[in-house]
Design goal:
The chain is mainly beta and about 260 residues long. The chain is about 0% helix and about 55% strand. The protein is globular and about 40 Å long. The relative contact order is 0.12.
């Protein structure tokens, strides 16, 4: 079950939630395993110094890459919420944002999701709450905005990032009626691609929700990212849902790649 699509330093990175791994695929098509992670959800991003920070979601832990030692514990999130943690996004300052769903997966959906802030000094606090199953999350290039996909609300919520790292709600970046956004990715010019499980597609939108492009797929799509040398390749992680969570089911996870139109801004 591929998740957490990332383009970084000329390679496509992804997490396999059922295998418990993070891997990278280079432009020649070679795959290398980067790390093993104790529990899913598995998400990751890079700190300003180049090290990878990883969420081991069910364990409620943030891990950090240490040369010659692998992934070592950085923070324990369970004091803020005992439920699974999901997405991570690193700010240019080194602040780390992590969101959690705030309930068991099988529970009746409620708006119990939250966002935690982990600062470089090790301090940890909740900076947003009341989210309807927070999923993909992004920090803008200028460090001033955080966007989070609320899968159960059909929207991308926006927050203004204060100088101290705390968040001010700034309304909806986009309202996506009838959609359940999962993983999200900047398009390189201010727009966003979002992946969708029930719709089996990836959708390219502008702020406000205007649709620029849609890539229809044959399986659920969990995450996507614009990458490639010119930023015009869309990498998509798909699998049959919900069968992918059954250990006895055939392995249907795929990395799909398609050249897409690029936004002009």
């Amino acid at each position: 079950m591929g998740e957490s699509a990332r383009w970084h330093d000329g390679e496509f990175f992804y997490a396999d939630w059922t295998a418990g791994t993070i891997s990278a695929l280079d432009e020649a098509g070679s795959i290398r395993r980067v790390a093993g992670v104790p529990s899913f959800p598995i998400t990751f991003d890079w700190l300003p110094d180049g090290r990878m920070a990883v969420v081991s979601g069910t364990d409620g832990s943030v891990l950090v890459e240490v040369p010659h030692a692998g992934l070592v514990p950085l923070a324990d999130l369970r004091g803020l919420s005992p439920y699974p943690w999901n997405e991570i996004a690193v700010h240019p300052s080194g602040n780390i944002y992590i969101n959690g769903i705030g309930q068991d997966y099988a529970a009746e959906p409620e708006a119990n999701g939250l966002i935690a802030l982990l600062r470089p000094d090790g301090s940890l606090e909740e900076v947003a709450g009341g989210l309807a199953f927070p999923n993909g999350m992004l920090v803008s290039a200028d460090g001033g905005t955080l966007v989070v996909a609320e899968s159960n609300a059909g929207r991308l919520a926006s927050f203004t990032i204060r100088d101290d790292g705390s968040l001010d709600p700034a309304g909806n970046w986009a309202t996506l009626e009838g959609s359940a956004p999962d993983g999200i990715s900047w398009d390189g010019t201010g727009g966003i691609w979002f992946a969708e499980v029930p719709g089996e597609r990836c959708v390219h939108i502008q702020r406000g929700g205007a649709v620029l492009d849609t890539v229809q797929l044959n399986d659920a799509c969990f995450s996507c990212v614009a990458g490639g040398e010119d930023g015009g390749l869309l990498f998509m992680l798909t699998a049959q849902w919900p069968e992918v969570m059954d250990p006895a089911w055939e392995k249907t996870g795929k990395v799909m790649v398609q050249r897409v139109k690029q936004s002009s801004g």
